[in-house]
Amino acid sequence: MSVARPARCLLSKRFAAALKPATPTCSAAFHSSAHLEARKKQRFKSIRAEEMGLTSPEKVQKYTEENFQPYTPEEIEILKKHYSPDQMEALQAGEAAIDPTDLTIQGRLRKDPYKIPYLDDFSRLAPVVDKRPKKQHSPPDFNKLRWLSEEEFMNDIARFAKEADAPQAKAWLEGKLNDPKLSEEQREWVGAQLAKVSAQLERTKGLEGKDGDAEGLEFLLERSMLNDDNAPSDSSIAPSLGKDVPGIAGIYQNPIDPEDQGLDDEGIYQDLKRRTGLSVKEMTSLTVKVLVVRMVHNQTRLGKIRSIWVLAIAGNGNGRLGIGEAKSVEQGTATQKAKLLAIRNMKPIPRYEERTIHGSVTSKFGATIVKLDARPPGFGLRVSARFFEMFRACGIHDIAAKMPRSRRPMNSVKACFEALTNQKDPNEIAIGRGKKLVDVRKVYFGGNVL
Amino acid sequence: MGLPAIANLCSHLQNASKARLGLTSAPHTKYNLKVVLALQKAGFLSFVTRGGATPPNPETLSTYEPEPLTTANIARQRLWVGLKYSDNAPVLRKMQAISTPKRPITMKLPDLERVARGWDTNGRVNVRGLNMGECLFVSTSKGVLEVREAIERKMGGLVLCRAGP
């Protein structure tokens, strides 16, 4: 390698380009595209914030005044209503301690579209993010703890039943309280009872709205059998969750949708319904077929892990076809996943006269080549079994297919799908060429074709 | 005959459209000129013009006048052609020479009729039928014609190349 070479490279690449702007030389400019180097060149110089004057003291001061204003006297009055004098003192000390200029320089106030919608809101618990507070309870006095006697147990049942009936009792008492016929003494008694029941309801808040069976079950499973007055236990068997768990109540809904007319009680199609916009009835009426099933193995140091790989197709019989492939240890799971994916992946297939394809299409997938040819009406599906299912599912009635090379099931199905979706669109050809393309068959039959 | 130049032109146009070039050039020969003019007539090319080593300015193309041909500059002349793209795909995607210098292929009218209908030829020559959107260019005594025009004029000739989307 000569010594002159690096210097020549330097001169020829960057410096030479900088000296004279790209004039196409005669040597190799037989097309108009820019050279690769010319394309790579940056269009704009990067400018620092300092050079733009964004970090000058005046700018910082202006930003600080705009964004971090101190509390006005009116705001302080409002705050005083919500906070105790001690808290107010702490607040004002905190305000005085932080210089707003520091906030401008060091603080990170986000303005991007992905910012978190709050600065800090500690008034409510966010599920997942926040830790749920533990209920504080003192450990039971083990010296006095013993099993309930028979009499105590009966009393406990009675008390439980009373608690369960409390909402009804409260409604009845409230009705009585407004009864004009009651004497003053009676009214007082009803008022006292009502207060008792309300207090009881307050204690058992969060347990309303249960039916009788669930209550009975709860009594059996969750009621303490010790004389600890049903205090929360430290047992390793956790109590079941109540219906209205704070932070979660109302978030999860029952998957059964009355729109589905009982077709999808297991909630299999719910995700698909949301993605595709098809109703469950439409999805169940699609042609869905499993075309390929394979045993596949993952060789690990512990041995082979066997799984089932399934390829399924789905079509509506009217120009839409999709393929889905899935793998699972269980064949049933893999089949279901593949079928749902096939429905999800359904694509429109261009069809000529809604019976065959446009011209001849060839597609290669792996070592498999699939050649599809359009055929006249009444020709039928003279194709292999898997292709037959595919064409029937997407509503093609006249076609011939050839696989001159490998005919592996998986690759042949994939290649066929690729061929069907990659057909040339005659309208697109006509637009591209600026020509009028005429369907001669249509002209010959005077438009009396499909 | 200029037949090798046709094969080169086919490959070059195919490569240029794969590279998504806006315009490209080919050697200025009589056969090349006839073929690119036929291609432009069939709608595969946006323009055809003669030019030097640098491309003509596309903005002033409508008023562009190529320099007059002289013995001094004829060797440096090239054919500049504009490639077309529609829906982010090249209009001219495949172009293949049929006649080669080693084996020129001539076809008479009945064979051309078969090929234009999409059927393969049977017998002496082996030319596949045309697919949807494909064109076949035939060199006849009336110049280079597209196969449908040649059939209209009831002429056969030397089959140069096929072009398609």
Automatic annotation (TrEMBL), chain A:
UniProt keyword Ribonucleoprotein, yes or no: yes
PROSITE patterns per record: S5_DSRBD
InterPro entries in alphabetical order: Ribosomal_Su5_D2-typ_SF, Ribosomal_uS5, Ribosomal_uS5_C, Ribosomal_uS5_N, Ribsml_uS5_D2-typ_fold_subgr
Pfam families in UniProt: Ribosomal_S5, Ribosomal_S5_C
Domain S5 DRBM positions: 286-349
Name under which the protein is recorded: Small ribosomal subunit protein uS5m
Main location class: mitochondrion
Recorded GO CC terms: mitochondrial inner membrane; mitochondrial small ribosomal subunit
Species whose genome carries this gene: Apiospora kogelbergensis
Cellular compartment(s): Mitochondrion
Family: Belongs to the universal ribosomal protein uS5 family.
KW S-adenosyl-L-methionine (keyword) present: no
Gene Ontology biological process: translation
Signal peptide boundaries: none
Keywords: Mitochondrion, Ribonucleoprotein, Ribosomal protein
GO molecular function: RNA binding; structural constituent of ribosome
UniProtKB/TrEMBL annotation, chain B:
Alphabetic keyword roster: Ribonucleoprotein, Ribosomal protein
GO annotation terms (biological process): translation
Molecular function terms, GO-annotated: structural constituent of ribosome
A cellular component annotation (GO) from this entry: ribosome
Keyword Transcription regulation annotated: no
Keyword Ribonucleoprotein: yes
Coiled coil: none
Family membership noted in the UniProt record: Belongs to the universal ribosomal protein uS8 family.
Protein name, UniProt field: 40s ribosomal protein s8
